[in-house]
């Protein structure tokens, strides 16, 4: 056989073999990102969100993925720091994610918003509620109800309990959320006839700052306290108040409402109130199945951040299924199409700006559990 014909047949055989090998190769996974604080004093919130997102991804992969493509969750830690957040979101962009679940705090959301807009990546936050991020036609979606709904319900409950002189301390490390919450709470409480008699700020991790902030509040002779901070710092503030002999009512925000709050606070946080869109006593079959799976997988109870992240991820994955895996404008259009999502505990949908409206409850720590106030 002439050499040229031999080489031609060898090339043809190799070409056919290549087609067989690569033609049968599984399609590339569809990548989505998760961005949350996984280190430092906000790690409980970020870890809970990651767990909820992971369960949603594992669930859809168990059903065959999206159009035959497995979904890969790429996790990045924003550490609740501006530089870390920018590096983390840059890494997700470089990885080619079709969407991002997160972040979990408003300050990080404000930091990364320009990046996700430039990259054209739809980003769905489970827990961000800041007013500055609402009512805008952009690629940022929010699953949690707005701050205004929370402060309206909380201030009314506190006023009805007899509070008239409120003292507030809030954390500057998540100022986009905390200052917004304080401003709206002040307005709502004053509208009812109450008065904010003192405001103090501190920065998470500054041990001396906690004591100074609390003393400023005590000096104003309040009849109730409002603390806006993460679970760890909120417990610390309450401990200082109780150690100084004051048994006045304390209320806080959903930011503190992780499972860590009760674990750390113990008896100290009994009677503390806060708003949530999560019902821990839910006995519906869908939620019970989720809770059982969560406990078996992660060896702990699910909290509001886990449920919110699960709902956010399922909505995003459903949107990607309808958009045939396309992110950006295609995914945004699907999410804004008026679809009603079957959340774990309630149905919900995005409005034309990508903001969600969900039922919000007043809850109280009672016998070591957060229970809905009837």
Q: How helical, in percent, are the residues?
A: 40-55%
CATH class of the largest domain: Alpha Beta
Shape field: globular
Indicate the CATH architecture of the largest domain. 3-Layer(aba) Sandwich
- On the 0-100 scale, what is the average pLDDT? 93
Strand content: 15-25%
Q: How many individual helices?
A: 12
| Fourth-level CATH superfamily of the largest domain | Response regulator
Radius of gyration (Å)? 24 Å
State the distance separating the first and last CA atoms: 91 Å
Q: What string gives the helices and strands in order?
A: HEHEHEHEEHEHEHEHEHEHHHEEEE
Strand order of the largest sheet: 7-6-8-9-10-13-14
**Low-confidence region ranges:** 3-8, 13-22
Structural write-up:
- The chain has 374 residues and is an alpha/beta fold.
- The chain has 2 domains: 30-145 and 283-359, Rossmann fold (3-Layer(aba) Sandwich), CATH 3.40.50; 148-276, 3-Layer(aba) Sandwich (Rossmann fold), CATH 3.40.50.2300.
- The protein has 12 helices and 14 strands.
- The chain has helices at residues 3-23, 43-62, 82-95, 106-119, 147-160, 175-192, 207-219, 231-243, 259-265, 285-298, 304-322, 328-335; strands at 30-36, 71-77, 99-101, 122-125, 140-142, 165-171, 195-202, 224-228, 250-252, 273-276, 341-342, 347-348, 361-366, 369-372.
- The strands form 3 sheets. Strands 7-6-8-9-10-13-14 form a 7-stranded mixed sheet, with helices on both faces.
- A hairpin with a 2-residue loop joins strand 13 and strand 14.
- Helix 5 packs across helix 6 (175-192).
- The termini are far apart.
């Amino acid at each position: 056989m002439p050499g040229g014909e031999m080489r031609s047949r060898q090339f043809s055989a190799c070409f056919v073999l290549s087609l067989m090998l690569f033609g049968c190769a599984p399609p590339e996974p569809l990548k989505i990102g998760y961005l949350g604080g996984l280190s430092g004093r906000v790690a409980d919130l970020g870890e809970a969100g990651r767990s909820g997102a992971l369960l949603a991804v594992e669930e859809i992969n168990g059903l065959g993925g999206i159009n035959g493509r497995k979904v890969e969750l790429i996790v990045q830690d924003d550490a609740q720091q501006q530089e870390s957040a920018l590096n983390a979101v840059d890494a997700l962009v470089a990885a080619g994610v079709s969407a991002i679940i997160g972040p979990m705090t408003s300050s990080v959301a404000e930091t990364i918003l320009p990046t996700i807009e430039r990259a054209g990546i739809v980003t769905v936050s489970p827990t961000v509620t800041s007013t500055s991020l609402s009512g805008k036609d952009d690629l940022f979606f929010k699953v949690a109800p707005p701050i205004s709904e929370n402060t309206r319900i909380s201030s009314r409950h506190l006023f009805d309990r007899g509070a008239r002189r409120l003292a507030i301390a809030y954390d500057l490390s998540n100022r986009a959320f905390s200052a917004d919450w304080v401003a709206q709470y002040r307005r709502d409480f004053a509208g009812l006839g109450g008065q904010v008699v003192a405001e103090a700020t501190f920065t998470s991790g500054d041990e001396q700052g906690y004591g100074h902030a609390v003393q400023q509040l005590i000096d104003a002779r309040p009849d109730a306290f409002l603390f806006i901070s993460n679970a760890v710092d909120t417990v610390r503030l309450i401990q200082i108040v109780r150690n100084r002999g004051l048994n006045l009512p304390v209320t806080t925000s959903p930011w503190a409402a992780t499972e860590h709050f009760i674990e750390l606070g113990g008896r100290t946080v009994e009677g503390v109130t806060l708003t949530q869109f999560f019902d821990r006593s839910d006995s519906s079959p869908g939620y019970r199945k989720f809770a059982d799976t969560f406990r078996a997988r992660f060896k702990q109870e699910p909290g509001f951040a886990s449920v919110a992240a699960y709902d956010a991820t399922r909505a995003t994955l459903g949107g990607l299924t309808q958009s045939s895996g396309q992110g950006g404008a295609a995914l945004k259009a699907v999410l804004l199409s008026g679809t009603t999502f079957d959340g774990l505990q309630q149905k919900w949908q995005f409005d034309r700006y990508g903001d969600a409206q969900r039922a919000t409850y007043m809850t109280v720590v009672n016998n070591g559990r957060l229970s809905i106030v009837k």
